[in-house]
Amino acid sequence: MPPDSGDWAETPLAAGTAPDADTAREALGNLRAEVAKAVVGQDAVVTGLVIALLCRGHVLLEGVPGVAKTLLVRTLAAALSLDFKRVQFTPDLMPGDVTGSLIYDAKTSEFEFRQGPVFTNLLLADEINRTPPKTQAALLEAMEERQVSVDGRPHELPEPFIVAATQNPVEYEGTYQLPEAQLDRFLLKLTVPLPPRDQEIAVLERHARGFDPRDLSQIKAVATIADLDAGRSAVSRVHAGPEVLGYIVDIARATRQSPSLQLGVSPRGATALLAGARAWAWLSGRSYVTPDDVKALARPAMRHRIQLRPEAELEGATPDGLIDAILASVPVPR
Fold first, then answer.
1. Which residue segment(s) compose the domain that 54 sits in?
2. Cα(128)–Cα(138) distance, rounded to whole angstroms?
3. Domain with 273 in it: what CATH number?
4. Burial track 317-326 (b if 16+ CB lie within 10 A, e otherwise)
5. Same domain (yes/no): 126, 261
6. Which residues contact 260 (CB under 8 A, 6 or more apart)?
7. Half-sphere exposure at residue 103, Cβ-oriented, CA atoms within 13 angstroms
8. Are residue 173 and residue 260 in the same domain, yes or no?
9. What is the DSSP letter of 239?
10. Are 50 and 141 contained in the same domain?
11. Could you tell me if 227 and 285 lie in one domain?
12. What is the pLDDT of residue 164?
């Protein structure tokens, strides 16, 4: 399922076996059904998070408060048996509160490094746009370098390591918009929409039956780090032909030439689109990338990397709409 629609297989993972590529694909495919035990809908967001894990990338989740962004990430960590930590970003949060800091030990008369919450497999950076840029930059440095340097000494982060950062739309008060250079560090930006009427009724029915979002004991680990490792190895072998690479470059160049955009997709954005397309191709059961794979990942891989001109915004243009228009204008290789 691309980060917009579709279905996955639901074959359970056989316990006690060393996962091969097919077994890993089935195990990761089971995540959607397991997460659905706690979160109604949002299958596309689960897919995007799995793609990010396979690509060793990070995800920015955007949606209004109350659409289960935090619950979704917590549930995914439980279903993957990953170490999980959450940081609530606030205006007074300091960089050391995230990365860790040196603490003086009176018994040894020495300073020792005390790890911050960033030392985990899946870090939920909740409402990242509510903390000042200095703390945002500290987290984003750890995301890029996969380590934290304190007093000149590097401290490596665990593997796997992924940040799922949530943010509310920037028009809400008390937020600090992430600069474009920092947004570019995220592999994907996934929008978490309000549920349709039937799904919202299903949410209320669950709560009426006594569902407690703080209790995830019903969530089983249906995939493991070994499955992720097997999946990553398989994704690295997915072939992208010259025509597909040229198609991705043409899309990126078209964003830079669009009169509606003052900032187009960088080469890093093009590589992110390629990585996501390869992961989706593998999840779809193929060993090669097609133009349709590229189209499926174009929105989440590029929507946070482009910047609209003010006059385009006044005319009602949106990043997703412009990406769709660019996809329609770039010739598809045959």
1. 1-237
2. 12
3. 1.10.8.80
4. bebeebbeeb
5. no
6. 308, 309, 312, 317, 322
7. 9
8. no
9. B
10. yes
11. no
12. 94
**Residues of 117-127 as b/e, b for ≥16 C-beta within 10 angstroms?**
bbbbbbbbbbb
Q: What is the biggest distance separating any 2 CA atoms in the chain, rounded to whole angstroms? A: 70
Distance of CA 116 to the CA centre of its chain: 21
Q: Do 271 and 196 belong to one domain?
A: no
Question: In CATH, what number is assigned to the domain containing residue 233?
Answer: 3.40.50.300
pLDDT digits (tens, 9 = 90+) for 201-236: 999 999 999 888 888 888 999 999 999 999 999 999
Return d(Cα 125, Cα 182) in angstroms, integer. 14
| Same-domain check for residues 244 and 233 | no
Residue 105's pLDDT is what? Answer: 80
- pLDDT per residue as tens digits for the range 288-319: 999 999 999 999 999 999 999 999 999 999 99
Whether the pLDDT of residue 27 is over 60: the answer is yes
Say whether both 224 and 324 belong to one domain: no
The domain total for the chain is 2
Burial code of 268-293, b = ≥16 C-beta within 10 A, e = fewer?
Answer: ebbebbbbbbbbbbbbbeeeebbbeb
Given CA atoms 302, 304, 307, 312 in this order, what sign does their dihedral have?
positive
Between CA 266 and CA 274, with CA 272 as vertex, the angle to 5 degrees is 110
User: Given 202, 237, 272, which residue is the final one in a domain?
Assistant: 237
- Output the DSSP codes for 246-292: HHHHHHHHHHHH-TTEEE---HHHHHHHHHHHHHHHHHTT-SB--HH
Question: What phi-psi label fits residue 16: left (phi over 0), alpha (psi between -120 and 50 degrees) or beta?
Answer: left
Q: Are residues 129 and 209 in the same domain?
A: yes
Which 8-state DSSP code applies to residue 300? H
Query: Order of strands, edge to edge, in the sheet holding 84-88?
Result: 84-88, 122-126, 162-167, 59-62, 188-191
